[in-house]
Write a structure and sequence with these properties.
The structure is a homotetramer.
Chain A lengths: L15 E19 L6 E13 L2 H5 L9 H14 L5 H15 L3 E10 L2 E3 L6 E4 L4 E9 L2 E15 L24 E11 L6 H17 L6 H15 L3 E10 L2 E3 L13 E4 L4 E10 L17
Antiparallel strand pairs in A: 1-2, 2-3, 3-6, 4-5, 6-7, 7-8, 8-9, 9-12, 10-11
Helix pairs in contact in A: 4-5
Chain lengths: 306, 306, 306, 306
Amino acid sequence: MTSNTAETKQAGSGTVRLAANQYGKAENHVVRVYRDSARHSIRDLNVTSQLRGDFELAHTEGDNEHVVATDTQKNTVFAKAKENGIESPEQFLLGLADHFTSNFDWVTGGRWAAEEYGWSRINDHDHSFYKSAPEIRTAVVMRNGDRDIVISGFYDLTVLKTTASGFVGYPKDKYTTLPETEDRILATDIATRWRYNTTDIDYDATYKRVKEIILETFTDHYSYALQHTLYQMAEKVIASVPEIDEIKFSCPNKHHFLYDLERFDIDNPNEVFHAADRPYGLIEATVARADVELDERDWIGIAGFC
Amino acid sequence: MTSNTAETKQAGSGTVRLAANQYGKAENHVVRVYRDSARHSIRDLNVTSQLRGDFELAHTEGDNEHVVATDTQKNTVFAKAKENGIESPEQFLLGLADHFTSNFDWVTGGRWAAEEYGWSRINDHDHSFYKSAPEIRTAVVMRNGDRDIVISGFYDLTVLKTTASGFVGYPKDKYTTLPETEDRILATDIATRWRYNTTDIDYDATYKRVKEIILETFTDHYSYALQHTLYQMAEKVIASVPEIDEIKFSCPNKHHFLYDLERFDIDNPNEVFHAADRPYGLIEATVARADVELDERDWIGIAGFC
Amino acid sequence: MTSNTAETKQAGSGTVRLAANQYGKAENHVVRVYRDSARHSIRDLNVTSQLRGDFELAHTEGDNEHVVATDTQKNTVFAKAKENGIESPEQFLLGLADHFTSNFDWVTGGRWAAEEYGWSRINDHDHSFYKSAPEIRTAVVMRNGDRDIVISGFYDLTVLKTTASGFVGYPKDKYTTLPETEDRILATDIATRWRYNTTDIDYDATYKRVKEIILETFTDHYSYALQHTLYQMAEKVIASVPEIDEIKFSCPNKHHFLYDLERFDIDNPNEVFHAADRPYGLIEATVARADVELDERDWIGIAGFC
Amino acid sequence: MTSNTAETKQAGSGTVRLAANQYGKAENHVVRVYRDSARHSIRDLNVTSQLRGDFELAHTEGDNEHVVATDTQKNTVFAKAKENGIESPEQFLLGLADHFTSNFDWVTGGRWAAEEYGWSRINDHDHSFYKSAPEIRTAVVMRNGDRDIVISGFYDLTVLKTTASGFVGYPKDKYTTLPETEDRILATDIATRWRYNTTDIDYDATYKRVKEIILETFTDHYSYALQHTLYQMAEKVIASVPEIDEIKFSCPNKHHFLYDLERFDIDNPNEVFHAADRPYGLIEATVARADVELDERDWIGIAGFC
């Protein structure tokens, strides 16, 4: 979290000072129905609003003069779903950022986040839907004074390939027992977030395109390791989408262990696997456009990794 | 659970007796790859095996002479995934039942259950898949001596209609505050299980058909209450599939409350809703073929409802 | 679920009939504060209310004349928390049963359930508490006409012993690879439910006593298998508490596998274990007072097992 | 994540470059038994090991020459549980950091994390335990070259006070509907992490002391807002423990809404509450020793907040 004016004050005791802080209402689950014609449509978002700015006295003195109530933030989220509509999660969050920073002098920024759940029509019906998206879409807007950071992403897109994956050539020490293999199952839950370098973008179309690139890349090469595959996904996203400067992945290596059936005189040529839960590999990487300098603080608070 | 011979014995103390019991290995997560051609396919099952029979002495005396180790049951599940293959979850579980009851005299029955997770090809790729099914498929086989009960189902199929649903005409007492409405969102997570009257059936094709009937029925009528909708689903399933004698539903009424925006002078004509978590309505019903007598004990232990 | 009058009617189509059914409001999370003196106390319950009776027309015709709204049931739960108080979960549920069956002619029974979360005072403070109970207490009341069944229990009480447990003497077949052991870790999450033969009982005191017996029994013997241990727990509960006729356990065998450190020339004399998640053993048993006849239908719908 | 030498290289394409990255094995669940006397004791840790350093070629070329297998990291965790023992989670993680950075030249740092689950003896038994801790203890060690950062904490310590809490004096706008109150329930799940300025410390004793300070502070004042209470907790921890320079809290305001019973002519003087799930307030703050300069990058990747 970036510094704000509140941090420059000193608490009464002189021993401590308030540093980064934010507060708000989390997980406002708003469903917006568009019913202008007989063919309805919906957006289904879980929205968190958190404000940053001068909240020193609330902490040090219990003086709430600056504390825009989290209940007020909740009401605002639902009101804006009607007033502004939900064109995309990112656009909706930017509208919340505008509202709070323009209406309260001491609110100099904040963090607004959303998850979106994807629905499809049942048999192309006008007003009946089922929850269909395998992944959960995410969006985060962080505003600090004049600067906006918009990060989009998704998680829980589980993918698996039954071959064209191996793991060889790694160092061996006294604790190494893993045998090399040139044919294994590779499976992961893709969690990714990318940072835009502009807000002049069609967020929904770009989201769709990034997801397609990532899925297509998963299929198109022999994987020497999950690192190798994630890097290629990242490279193709940045090469294809000029509005993205940086992308992160945090992906488990979901081990599928070949079950040892030889003990029972049964051959098992990569056919029967035990899908294990824990422990799992965990591969995390950030890939950036080559000529862009990163400010790692930008990412604080928006990811469970890196 | 039905009685077994073990129950007729008396524990040493004379105070108590062992009644229904079963044991085994739960949640064996087996992934079966078919790779006979370049176009691979997979079945992804989470299998639980539990045996019933004469296990009296294990309980009362700590004598494990009859206790087929749960570790052995696990090995068997994985071995049978190769030996028998997985044509359908139901067929696979019937094979496990045959194995255990034919190999151990004192195993007179048991309960075998599976969840199946559905995958689709990524861009029709030969060996790359993503986890796509919105619902989790379930199957249970219960064997008691010569009798098999096969129950199929699914859960977590979330559906929502934005109109054509209301709730009126209910009794009012001093604790009633709910206003009547003729236009609301209806949403639920469908959980259902049905019982077959035969094992001579194409389980995969029938599963697909039942799911289609249920989804289609969700769209095809004005719903006076979730009870009304579930009953119609049940009726159509039984009318259309002669091999099904009985079907159960256990479905939450996932409330979508119209957000009160009038307080802010904003009109909200069924457009902005708060999707609440708890509490929720919970509607559970069994519907049976009219001329079939039910034995409610058949269902013990296979459902979280009724 | 036991039969009710509704089940004897026939649906219009003649093809199907409504069998067992129940509906209501699930997971009403009520916190009741007692503040008659400066020393406050709390009860923290998650309550589900479901009604049974004549609800045929709601299902078959969409006629809600009999449907006591689930919203009304919710209001009633919270109102009764004030009107009746919460002396114990069981007493509270019995009060709900009385209310609904006495106020609506067509409500002939139902199922009322609660979970209770246990809190302790922070440093014996008058009004500050922390959530302290390792287990979740459960209570279920099922009423069918004149008959009440009261079932109490708990789950998620995780216990572990580092020795005095083994597993030997089990049958070996071609799929058996487990080595016998006379010293292993035994660990489980205890889930249990017991049925009272009376409602004239101090539910809180009895709950405390049953839990103590179960914990004490876990420690007091060499365990030949989890079955052996559960049976002894059951036997002692029934021998010690005349008001209990029947008790069930559904307990995972939470495997702690000795980690193979010999591969690294490190001795591991039962010191370093891998606590595995899945698969796990699953041991389920019902133990009854010797001279009591069981009606297995009584248990339908109150347990995830047997 | 801090920069490493790998980041200065350029990927082959010239379009992108690898920035921060780490990988390893997550959630190795190790149970360490001490059984040197008849009175056994246990430590129960869930350990994640992730390495940082020069892993460029694995990403860009699929060359695994530097990739210490995650399976090897797993084996090492279990081996070190025997070789080094588990004196405290922090000491154990520092030992892992030493191992990996001293054995592999290109491993210049990493992130090692653990959760610890607390057990108590059943009736003071020598070798029987139950899982008793209401909170989950956490520890993180981040090493970057010569610099170590050690962060300890816990989460899921749920606390509640039935009075001595209010919320007044906040700004009102057109979306504000919350009434002021001087007497409400205050409840939260405490999640906190603190940073030590030394590794010369008794981690277990300090953990115990910090937890006690936090709990005691929760009880000792009238709370004007959760911000006010968290700040006081932080202030007292830093004032009391000179080895701590910085502490963070991320705490939900778990709303307990007074249930409106007036509609039923029932008085409800702060006695019956609905414990709501979502949305919830979310209050996050960092408090630092007054004269210590913070490097916010130190926290990247170790917390879900700020």
